[in-house]
């Protein structure tokens, strides 16, 4: 039992995360120093958890979509829309809970729209979600009329920058979502259904899975997650920046899912490992910030690290240095846990 | 010679030559304005200030929004030429590809003034260009810091704009020029915040951790105000006082930074004026009055604003401009 647990922990994603954190520690010796300040934890590791939360939340939604052989390019734009809705409503005088719920509903609606295009109209996911990726930012700009809508609402600011039990609120929200979604897909049959649809939608339908409903569900979840991330990002800077909120984060979310070992071809997926992927990306970002590299190197360092991490996970690396020799020997293909 | 004295001289000369009549009176003239689009708050402010300036002078401004496309700008300029306007203002979206359409304007004897960006075309194809000097903006910010820290040791952290963009390169260069020779001021850390609030905040958080919880940082220099606003929040989250514990100096002069200055949370900003049209109209007025050829490159003023410059008033004046 213990050995199996240890075996589970020794997967390449967690090793990569530990590796990146160790590199950060070598570059910046007080990387792991955490202090207690103003009723919250304070330190670089906390920054990784806090700043990584939006992409982690996006990747929780994205992993289900990618497991169905789809992709959701619109999440960055949906973040901007949700932030714009929440900010505009509180500025217009609506109570904050109403603004938050409205923003979440708008995100859900965006997800349902994507799901409708993909599942009902059978448009390829990359094209279907590209529509909202482009239009969404325009919608957000329309809502904010091109301004950065700033607000002083305590609830929205709490969601973005508050803390719960010393942990940043964004981290707590990501953690709760992680647990809920993991339970949803692993303690019910939904996870298996998603994998079945991702491997072969026609076969899954013939086997009695309502694949259309399932697709709409995963895109709706992705939209909802994007809205949550959007509210957090807006609360963080006390303003909705339609031009920049969530810009390119869809790519970070897809990368996090891929680093987490989920195949873009659908099927096998893991929600916790996607979150680990998001943390790896953020650990690199934070590491670059505290290490003092010139900014010209940011993207090169990131790209180099990511290639390395993907290489470690590749079938080639598994052949050269088998991670689980007993399985490799008897030729059992790794399947979903 | 500063731009103000240049303009004053030009205006004075023009008045002297134009037999007592007001040389600046250009009311009734029709001017076409091809704007890039409204990609940033500053751009929107430039559009509204240009319209204001035209109205003040009684100029009939024909406005065309190119939505970031050069082909739309060329179409708009051809349209202005066909309508026979008296002058054309262009904020060019890219630097190349203007020779033909500028030649057409020249043949129609319509003076063209470039606003805030230059083009790669023969200089005789346009009357003048009005732009800010980004290196100077950095220099003014750096000079403010030099004047304000005296001989104390001062570790500065820098929030750069988007890597490789010309404002980031030039504003960095100007700041470094200003602090050169003042060995007590050093740039301890420099990272890109992509000109956005959220990245500015994130990068500043990292800097604070890396510099002994922020205790070692004396000042933050941000290449734009938005990053400074983000940095101010990061400083507050770390339990420090922005403006006091860590000085904040940035560039652009957007309304929100004036609020921060009024609250004592930011110290200074260098204005990138959205009023590019004012000097352009002045140059046109002199040109129409007696054919005075203006300088080929008119540099706008990079004015420094601090708490002494009525930040509340500046905020009120700017908030309606579309920033």
UniProtKB/TrEMBL annotation, chain A:
GO terms for cellular component: plasma membrane. The keyword Membrane applies. Coiled coil: none annotated. The keyword Ion transport does not apply. This is ABC transporter permease. The chain crosses the membrane at residues 12-32, 52-68, 75-94, 100-120, 127-149, 155-185, 214-235, 247-266, 273-293, 299-317. Pfam families: BPD_transp_2 (PF02653). GO terms for molecular function: transmembrane transporter activity. It comes from the Bacteria. It is a multi-pass membrane protein. It is found in: Cell membrane.
